[in-house]
Amino acid sequence: METDVKKLLGQRIRLMRKKRGLTQERLSELIGIEPLSLSRIECGSRFPRKENIEKLSKALDCSINDLFDFEEEKTYTAAELKKEINQKLKNAGINDLKYFNKIITAYWETKI
């Protein structure tokens, strides 16, 4: 499977931005780009320019290497995880919801 570095980098930037409590608007102000440009970077449709990668690392208080550390495991509080799951469910279609329901039901039946 081909690795899409743009998507992985975008996910990493989004994760680091949220961990630092920054909105897309605030981070885009800090690095001097339009919020739409940052949104496209986070979605993986655009790759940031070299100077913006440097600005991102400063604004997110991390090294450039940290931005490309795609292997870091996410850590969540229960509230953060519920929020992330709920956001995904909000965007899911009926077939996905049925599928998720089957998985959750099967999981809970094995716990009883």
How would you sum up this structure, described in words?
The model has no long low-confidence stretch (mean pLDDT 88). By secondary structure, the protein is mainly α. 69% of the residues lie in helices and 0% in strands. The chain has helices at residues 5-19, 24-31, 35-43, 50-59, 64-67, 78-90, 94-111. The protein is elongated. It has two domains: 5-67, 434 Repressor (Amino-terminal Domain); 78-111. The longest helix has 18 residues, at 94-111.
CATH C-level class of the largest domain is Mainly Alpha
> Over the alpha carbons, how many angstroms does the gyration radius reach?
17 Å
Give the mean pLDDT: 88
DSSP summary, beta strand count: 0
Distance between the termini: 37 Å
Helix content: 55-70%
Q: How many helices in DSSP terms?
A: 7
How would you sum up the global shape? elongated
Order of helices and strands: HHHHHHH
Q: What kind of sheet is the major sheet?
A: none
Count of domain modules: 2
Architecture per CATH nomenclature, i.e. the level-2 architecture of the largest domain: Orthogonal Bundle
Instruction: Estimate what percentage of residues fall within beta strands.
Output: under 5%
SS-based class: mainly alpha
Looking at this structure, what is the CATH superfamily of the largest domain?
Answer: lambda repressor-like DNA-binding domains
Unreliable segments (pLDDT under 50, ≥5 consecutive)? none
CATH domain topology of the largest domain:
434 Repressor (Amino-terminal Domain)
